[in-house]
Amino acid sequence: MEEKAAAGSGLHGRRSYPAVRRLGIAVDENDLRPGALRLIRELRPQWETERVQTKLFTDGITNKLMACYVDEGMADAVLVRVYGRKTELFVDRENELKNFQVLRAHGCAPNLYCTFQNGLCYEFMHGIALGPEHVREPQIFRLIAWEMAKMHTIHTNGRLPKPSLWHKLHNYLNIVRTELTTKASNPRSCCSAFALSGPGETFAESQTDVLEQSKQRQLRLRYQEVPSLEVLEQEVAWMREYLSQLNSPVVLCHNDLLCKNIIYNEAEEHVRFIDYEYAGYNYQAFDIGNHFNEFAGVNEVDYSLCPSRDTQLEWLRHYLQAYKQLSQDDRGGEGGLVSDKELETLYVQANQFALASHFLWAFWALIQDKYSTIDFNFFRYAKLRFKQYFKIKSAVMALEMPK
């Protein structure tokens, strides 16, 4: 039932990390408690099963999460995270495990106790999961900027990997193209629910099953609310050509820094990031622009909450000061001094890379809409992200780099 995961180096250089315990247990995502208790019996054999309490967290929209503990204050809590259905389509679990180990080694992640067949167990971090009302507060966003800079200055021992953004965007686009399109029963037909976006088009007349015709018609009408495949492909190609020329450094990124993935410990006056499924080497400006987008929230999205130019510049100044202080490459004696040109450059880069963030999570939401069992309106979320992309694109592209 148990095996050890071999320590790896891979993209993260030659440093080896302790083997992670693997348990041959599967947890039912629709009934977490029985499987979670089986895991706890392995991880905490000294705990009396009848004393173990559980708490289900409901904020997550990718995975399901349960805390197991015997202390009322949850000081000893073990978190059991069960992967969402079909998330292997867009999450590299082996890479997630490596990133978890790297971040832990640099003091940026909790202890990882084990992996199991469809999830992992790790240390509970004390504090509050932030909301949009918190991340705008200067005393908190200074801590977030510092923690992000700390993560971004984790270096490899070897060749710097390529940014993951383009691979992810093309992978998600391909999933949307192949997994979410509805083909007519006529084998000669190559039309999809996305492609059939014109008001005068119909599904293949050879379809004889009335119920199936009705379902396809409803699906077709639904997907008229999002851009056609042709438009999606054009925008992804344009973003790759344009954004890759902005010279944003490639660093180790979180890539999913929504508010609930930030834990604030007021007593110790620090923040920590959680959930590293999408972590990996990527453009510095993407990680920042993606975080700024998340000021709008997830359940009740309101883009008027996104930080103003002045707030962004203040945030970015704190970030750049920390980044320069923490960076191993800062040997010029300048400390954390930040020039106006550096600040304005990162402002433009972050806002333009925020466009790619909208597209990435819109694709993600379309995939989740088909497969996830989590109670969340993923299709509505996809529409909101696409809409915001096209709404702000012209204004964002009008931003000019400082001379």
Question: DSSP strand (E) fraction?
Answer: 5-15%
**What oligomeric assembly is this protein in?**
single chain
Number of strands: 12
Class of secondary structure makeup: alpha+beta
Overall average residue pLDDT: 87
Percent helix among the residues?
A: 40-55%
Shape category: globular
With helices defined by DSSP (H or I, 4 residues minimum), what is the helix count?
11
Adjacency order of strands in the biggest sheet:
1-2-6-7-5-4-3
- Secondary-structure element series: EEHEEEHEEEHHHHHEEEEHHHH
Largest sheet: 7 strands, mixed
Cα-to-Cα separation, first versus last residue: 61 Å
As a whole number of angstroms, the C-alpha radius of gyration is 23 Å
Could you characterize what this model shows?
- The chain is α+β, with helices and mostly antiparallel strands and 403 residues long.
- The protein has 11 helices and 12 strands.
- The strands form 3 sheets. Strands 1-2-6-7-5-4-3 form a 7-stranded mixed beta sheet, with helices on both faces. The chain has a 3-stranded antiparallel beta sheet with strand order 8-10-11, with helices on one face.
- Strand 4 and strand 5 form a beta hairpin.
- Helix 4 (138-152) crosses helix 9 (309-326), helix 5 (165-179) runs antiparallel to helix 7 (229-243) and helix 5 runs parallel beside helix 10.
- The chain is globular and about 65 Å long.
- The N and C termini lie far apart (61 Å).
- The model is unreliable at 5-14, 183-193 and 195-201 (pLDDT under 50).
